[in-house]
Amino acid sequence: MNYPLLNVFLTMMWVFLWVLWFVLLFRVISDLFRDDSLSGWAKAAWTVFVIVLPFLGVFTYLIVRGRGMGKREIGHMREREARYREAVARSSPPTGGSAEELARLAELKAHGDLTSDEFERAKTKVLTG
To answer: Cardiolipin synthase N-terminal domain: from which residue to which, for each copy (predicted)?
Structure first.
């Protein structure tokens, strides 16, 4: 096998640049379809431009619409976080405070489900927060 070390580095560089190009291309296309301010025809035109003339299309998109890409990404992330927090709030049981928790522990101890040591540890945990 006769493949000099410099050729290995050059091949690695070209592969890295190729992967970087595809990441940039997918980033542009995902930003394009995430943007609600564009009409369907504008999205179709940008998509055709990016696919038919990829280098020119991507660089033109970055020049014309690149400034808003970060703002749209931040808005998308805030929306996802709000939906996540809403889902967590819906799925978590309502907390009634430490008084209800202590009453529940006392009931478990009265039924014999908890030993005195377990009750004291749980009570300390509830009271300390």
So the answer is: 19-65
* Token pair recorded at residue 89: 């709030």
* Confidence category of residue 31, pLDDT binned at 50, 70, 90: very high
Domain of 114, in residue numbers: 97-129
State the chain's mean pLDDT as an integer: 88
Q: Phi and psi (nearest 5°) for 17? A: -65, -35
Where helices occur in 1-129 by DSSP H, the ranges are 5-34, 40-52, 54-65, 67-91, 98-110, 116-128
pTM: 0.58
Q: Do 2 and 62 sit in the same domain of this protein?
A: yes
| Res 56: pLDDT | 94
Give a yes or no: residue 10 inside a domain. yes
- For 90-112, letters b (16+ CB in 10 Å) and e give eeeeeeeeeeebeeebeeebeee
Residue whose entry in the numeric block shows the structure tokens 């998509």:
47
Tell the burial category of 6 from Cβ atoms under 10 Å away from its Cβ (0-12, 13-18, 19+): exposed
